[in-house]
């Protein structure tokens, strides 16, 4: 069986939501990834975000280090700081990241370098646009899952993903994979195989591929760059919420020959629910009644876990791995 990542057209969402929901359901039940095309984020807005990202990463390491990652996981991380596959990686990921906490109507909770400070309204607008795009995807999920109206219907997910609340945990991340040869790094994998943590991730890839997805649970396929598409994938919270119906699939970034001469940039918008939301299953007749035991499940009763407990557990594993 060959696997590929489906392309789903979100145009005219309000009239076509039933068809879109069906396609989304098929993608999430199988590969856990899909490309979203005809979304509402203008190309210039995405291009400008990449320009700001590059401007930041062009700064010296000393300068970037002034904005180092804080205990609540925002700010700058240099090469090898995060290790997404601690069981198999000898050293951390060969990438740099800058994580933004949600913006607060003109203010950022991060300590911002000049380039981001000067553009903070722009960055806030970009984050909010990503948020509303994510809400549309989550509405398609509610329709696909047939969540009853009296339980929240199409808004079941959106009421757990409000942007302007103190407990919001959404995260905009700028990534850079600096050019270099695989031999110097001594590992073909640049970002360890991992699943994402939250409900969904929106990924913007630019020019240089490298992402791979474990489509069949054993074989890796590449996730090529599809022009103007956002790559959407299911995260761990969503897998819990759907009792495993929606698959949070392993993915990684590998060295490709073009990485020797070109930096690779990507932008991820991690859609993570409000911290006090529970991981109890969504009210849906189409999900399994019993939750499977997930590899990352803690020993205690996971029904009682909040999103905050779960995300903290996952962050600790990749930033402070025990092995
Ligand atoms: O940079 C990429 O293409 C993927 C990044 C990713 O999977 C992540 O940060 O979770
Ligand atoms: Fe990821």
TrEMBL record:
Tagged with keyword Metal-binding: yes
Annotated Fe2OG dioxygenase domain residues: 168-273
InterPro entries reported for this sequence: DIOX_N (IPR026992), IPNS-like_FE2OG_OXY (IPR044861), IPNS-like_sf (IPR027443), Iron_ascorbate_oxido_reductase (IPR050231), Oxoglu/Fe-dep_dioxygenase_dom (IPR005123)
Keywords: Iron, Metal-binding, Oxidoreductase
Pfam families: 2OG-FeII_Oxy (PF03171), DIOX_N (PF14226)
Keyword Nucleus among record annotations: no
GO molecular function terms noted in the UniProt entry: metal ion binding; oxidoreductase activity
Gene3D superfamilies: B-lactam Antibiotic, Isopenicillin N Synthase, Chain (2.60.120.330)
Record family assignment: Belongs to the iron/ascorbate-dependent oxidoreductase family.
Entry protein name: Fe2OG dioxygenase domain-containing protein
